[in-house]
Write a structure and sequence with these properties.
Order of helices and strands: HHHHHHEHHEHHHHEEEHHEEEHE
Number of helices: 15
Number of strands: 9
Strand order of the largest sheet: 3-9-4-5
Distance between the termini: 30 Å
Structural class: alpha+beta
Radius of gyration: 29 Å
Helix content: 40-55%
Strand content: 5-15%
């Protein structure tokens, strides 16, 4: 259980660094156990399936893989993150997995520790000379990145002093009790080369601290099943669609909503007048006016199928299937002309 918790923590951190939306996580949490069990309808090999499920999520729910994570960590404006996230990052880099850990959180809370720029916010003449002719470009690019930040209890002492002074003064990096600063103290200067070297060093550490899990698990192969639109609409509940076949042409889809939109667009392209008739006629024989309208404000969420024709999107698969059936009745299309390929 602890390992699963830490994996989830690492997933959330990687998502933070890669700017993936947090509001997608509610859906992620709600479906996680169900997704794990559905592979073979059991809790056997739960951890392996847990890892596989984390890694198989896509798009807004994805677990960022190493290449994307490291690129974003290296280039991100870490200094602009909120305080709790910055403290978490530097606590992990400082303490790692050692049992002899420092209480970074308390020290940052009472402001005994702060996060310091090694290359300062304001460059002195000496800093400009040491950085070289491209000092402005280097400063703009690297100032707030991870490679140029560290923890210290002596931020005010350092100010924008030259690097050699920050390293060698009484409370400088060379005499620091913080491991992060002991690494910095091995350098004699702080230029682009040193920034790149520390960036590589910290990114390599990050791959261990927030490692990408691996598993050899592969779900049992499930044969695809083809079912017709003529099935009772209740049958489609909890089924996962991979493709549909409409009038002999197969199209891959990732969701029932994607299929729904594709069929609607096909019907509109065939005869959009029928949709306008549904939206505007007084009689509503098929009960579709509540879903099809020219006034999008009447809908909770909508699919726009042309400039001024909208269809309700915030519906269940069960309802969408029924809408398609009613439209097929109006268009005089056989239910046998639409098949679904499901897992």
């Amino acid at each position: 259980m602890y390992y699963q918790f830490f994996l989830l923590q690492k997933c959330i951190f990687r998502r933070l660094i890669c700017d993936l939306p947090t509001n997608a996580l509610n859906k992620f949490y709600a479906s996680l156990h169900r997704d794990i069990v559905k592979y073979d309808n059991s809790i056997n090999r739960y951890l392996e399936k847990y890892i596989y499920t984390l890694l198989s999520k896509k798009d807004r729910l994805s677990f960022p893989l190493d290449k994307e994570f490291i690129k974003e960590l290296s280039e991100k404006n870490i200094y602009s993150l909120n305080k709790k996230n910055k403290v978490y990052i530097f606590e992990r880099f400082e303490n790692g997995n050692t049992k002899e850990d420092k209480d970074i959180y308390s020290h940052c809370e009472d402001r005994a520790y702060t996060i310091e720029h090694i290359m300062p916010k304001k460059l002195s003449k000496i800093w400009k000379q040491e950085l070289g002719s491209n000092y402005e470009k280097i400063h703009n690019k690297w100032l707030n990145r991870l490679a140029n930040l560290t923890l210290t209890a002596y931020n005010s002492n350092y100010s924008n002093r030259p690097f050699s002074e920050k390293k060698n003064i009484e409370d400088g990096y060379k005499n620091s009790g913080i491991k992060l600063n002991q690494y910095i103290a091995k350098f004699d200067k702080w230029t682009l080369d040193e920034l790149k070297e520390r960036d590589k060093y910290l990114c390599n550490q990050a791959l261990t601290l927030w490692e990408q899990p691996v598993t050899a698990y592969k779900p049992p192969k499930v044969e695809d099943t083809i079912i017709s639109l003529s099935y009772n609409s209740n049958f489609f509940i909890d089924k996962e669609i991979t493709a549909f076949i409409y009038k002999g042409t197969e199209q891959q889809v990732s969701s029932w909503v994607e299929m729904f939109e594709a069929i609607l667009n096909s019907l509109v392209n065939f005869d959009e007048k029928i949709f306008y008739d549904i939206a505007n006629k007084e009689d509503d024989e098929y009960g579709l006016k509540v879903y099809i309208t020219q006034d999008s404000s009447k809908l909770r969420e909508f699919i726009s199928i042309n400039n001024n024709l909208f269809i309700e999107k915030n519906t269940s698969t069960h309802i969408n299937i029924n809408i398609i059936k009613k439209l097929f009745d109006i268009f005089n299309i056989s239910y046998q002309d639409l098949d679904f390929i499901i897992k």
